[in-house]
Amino acid sequence: MSKEVIDGLRRDFEVLRNEMYSQVSNLRERISRLEGITMQLVERINDLDKRIDGLDKRVDALDKRIESLDKRIDYIARISWVLTGTVIATLIANIVVHMIK
Fold it and tell me: Does a structural domain hold residue 84?
């Protein structure tokens, strides 16, 4: 091989090597950016998990309140039936008393 051919091959090799280094550098930058984005996504997911946990606690507290209110409503309904029965019994007793007189 002539010296010109060898010099041409060396130049081509240098160009290819420089292109390869440039592409590797670009890939490293992209990977670095992707790592940063990934970390941001992980932070956001963790924040959302914390928010969901807080909402779960609120829902549990509301469920307990609803159960308590249901018990109160049942208690009030029982009392109203007792009072209604008492009023009816009193009316019947008054009618009977008036009939006897």
Answer: no
Q: How many helices (H) and strands (E) does the chain have?
A: 1, 0
91 DSSP assignment: H
When pLDDT is cut at 50, 70 and 90, the band that residue 101 belongs to is: confident
Rounded to whole angstroms, how far apart are CA atoms 40 and 24?
24
Question: Would residue 85 count as lying in a domain?
Answer: no
Predicted structure pTM score = 0.56
Q: What is the DSSP letter of 26?
A: H
| Total domains present in the chain | 1
Question: How far is it, in rounded angstroms, from Cα 56 to Cα 50?
Answer: 10
DSSP assignment of 59-85: HHHHHHHHHHHHHHHHHHHHHHHHHHH
- Is 80 inside a domain boundary? no
Q: Is residue 83 part of a domain?
A: no
Give residue 5's domain range: 1-71
